[in-house]
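**Paired protein data**
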Amino acid sequence: MRAVGIISLLLLHFGYLQNVFSANVSSRPAVVNVGAIFSFNSTIGRVAKIAIEEAVKDVNSNSSVLPGTKLVVQMQNSNCSGFLGMLGAMQLMEADNVAVIGPQSSVVARMVLNLANELQVPFLSFAATDPSLSSLQFPFFVRTTQSDLYQMTAIAEIVDYYSWKEVIAIYLDDDYGRNGVAALDDALAARRCKVSYKAGIPPGSAFSRGDIMDILINVALLESRVFVLHVNPDSGFMVFSVAQYLGMMATGHVWLATDWLSSVLDSFSPLPSDKMDSLQGVLVLRAHTPDSDRKRNFLSRWNKLNGGSFGVNSYGLYAYDSVWLLAHALDSFFNKGGIISFSNDSRLINFEGSDLHLDALSIFDGGSLLLNSILQSDLVGLTGPIKFDADRSLVLPAYDIINVIGTGFRRIGYWSNYSGLSTVPPETLYSRPPNRSSANPKLYSVVWPGETVIKPRGWVFPNNGKQLKIGVPIRVSYKEFVSQVQGTNNFKGFCIDVFTAAVNLLPYAVPYQFIPYGDGKKNPSYTGLVESIAAGDLDGAVGDIAITTNRTKFVDFTQPYAASGLVAVAPFKKLNTGAWAFLRPFSRLMWGVTAASFLVVGIVVWILEHRINDEFRGSPRQQLITILWFSLSTMFFSHRENTVSTLGRLVLIIWLFVVLIINSSYTASLTSLLTVQRLSSPIKGIATLKASNEPIGYQVGSFAEHYLIEEIGIPSSRLVALGSPEAYATALQNGPKKGGVAAVVDEQPYVELFLSSQCKFRIVGQEFTKSGWGFAFPRDSPLAVDLSTAILTLSENGDLQRIHDKWLQSSVCTSDTAEIESDRLHLKSFWGLFLIIGVVCFCALVIYFIQIMRQYSRTAPTVSLSNGEGSSRSKRLQRLLSLIDEKKDPSKSEPKRRKTERSSSDSVLETSPKRQAKFSTEVDIIPHNSRM
């Protein structure tokens, strides 16, 4: 019974579902009207018309999409006119179309999309690429192709890849062209590049060849040689023709065309020879569509559809996919219960009866539901995945980069928003983590205009007769570096010669003129000179300009041509040897520790030898003298006392090793002090200057003032501005007590030139900044890069050194080549030796006292029994001290060697009187012989 019940429920359930499905299918209309608006006679329109018709046929013949419903498309020709496009769109709205495929033109789209907003009819455009057509302003606009935002990003990455900094944009002066170039400008700015000039072409047929020639002549006078052409085919081919006539398709020029050119190449390749000749070396973008079986099948059908009169371009594929996207969205719309119904707009009631028949326009009630179905679509078409992101843009935008060569073109790489430039198809990279590393290969080689494979520099000096204004500081000191020729605007000096030599190495002429900077009374502010470049008053600056962090925020510098860094200069005095020069090798602490070590070692050896060695016994006075004599005599290895204990010998051998090291070091240091001249200065470097409160001098106009205040933290009240080497010398000689300075902080090249004739001063401490001198130019100036290469060439071939030797004389203070006072020998260099001897002494004393205590413990009970009463603490201490001081039995302690010596001496004393007399006679005879 339970089984029968379950079966009954299932039958009822399936019956219900069948009724619902039947009702859903029956609610679908037999025909769905869809509009299409584009330009039938345009390059894109010809292909789109056939693609849309084929897509409608395929949809209607496919039972899985819109079952029981026929899709009918009504087409209107906008003829690339906003006015005609608006009229065509109104006619489509009167026919109650639920959606419109198109418009093709961005200009037409901006006109008709307001109508779409009012009537809530979705527009699916397969070719309107204007990036300003946003979903916020036009919510019923769906772009089924790629936005020019991504195309311009791809061009910006190509420009950056080839290290070009400026481009000239030639564009159609309408919404399509202006907004595309605006997107290009933003993309370039993100990569520190820019559109240096924008040349607009009038839209439509309102331009002639003469107008194009006027535009290109003006462009040819500019600096950049990288051109981005964002136009339509008619104006684009005329631009290339005129450019070829003017010689702008020759070597050194770069032309980047957007996808308008690839559409023509795909549709009508090969083009006539005159057009192909004008396109040689051009780089072109084309929307990337991944290879697939479905795409290949469609392309094989294409020739049969149009008789081979023209090929299919990417916009035709997007048009085909737009129909399928709309069909799937309508199917989802009906599955969700959507009903096609229209209602009158109450705002159009006032227009009833007029000749315009605006009351025929009605609002599509299901427009919002159909729009959501479109945006939620997720399918794969001829162009790849058809899916929208949060900004209503197709996911995974990508472009092919092709190079026009000969009678055709060659693909040199790809660009995708996922991984940037690459020689690998984007769909292969989607399965990998994004990698934009510069180490990866980006693009294949390119044949540039002029049939060269050498990358164009991308810029030249303009042919309008304008010279670069190069600012040069008017120095009043150290004129060997930069100085103005009196009565002229010419300059000479080390920096000028380096600049002239570098410019002569450039492969092109550089017209320039020197502009004096400063009043000639004091050195100008070099930071102000750099800021004049950033403000556009100067095109560059040449001179002894230090490359600092603050200055690099405004301008670009060339490769440094001279090393520079801040150093401190101070007076010095010569250290004479004097009567007490022998004390100088060691510091005071070193002398003290060494003396204490001698005394400690003497005491330790005395303790270890006192009980068993007669040479360390005697009266207290004799023992004290023995300790002092023994310890001091070890300094010269001349000690006469023998050590007989093992511990004493261990301590002595280690101590003699320490003494050997100390003696050697002392001798070497003293020799150096007596033979090499030494210089002394109370200033040891920047740390000493910072810790003191004495005034510090700096050169007027130098960045040293800012560095000392901001980086070192020295108060500005301590800084004294000095304008010449003579002022340096006077201030240093006077010193702080006489209104001078304790030291001068300046850049090393100036200091070296100053010290070449001033032998009373020296550099103290180390160089505390590392920088260099360079020539300054505006940010991203290509001249800075080329001059850097020229400076490196000068350095490698030796010309830079020859220029240096010409202007900057070497030091004449050759007799005073010694350094400022070198460090003495300090305890830190020997503490390891003292530690070793200290540990050995300690261990020897510990072992010795352990032996004493063991001997004391053996003798203490015997003494206690003999006394008959317990010894007091004082008596035990006296016993311990007496044990330490008592003489140990020589027979038990003396080495065998000493016993042998003693027995030998005894035998001599016990010889016969006759032998003793003979010995005495021989002794008496020796002095007489020696006198002879």
Q: What stands out?
A: The chain has 31 helices and 33 strands. The radius of gyration is 50 Å. The first helix runs from residue 2 to 27. Residues 470 and 540 are 5 Å apart (CA to CA).
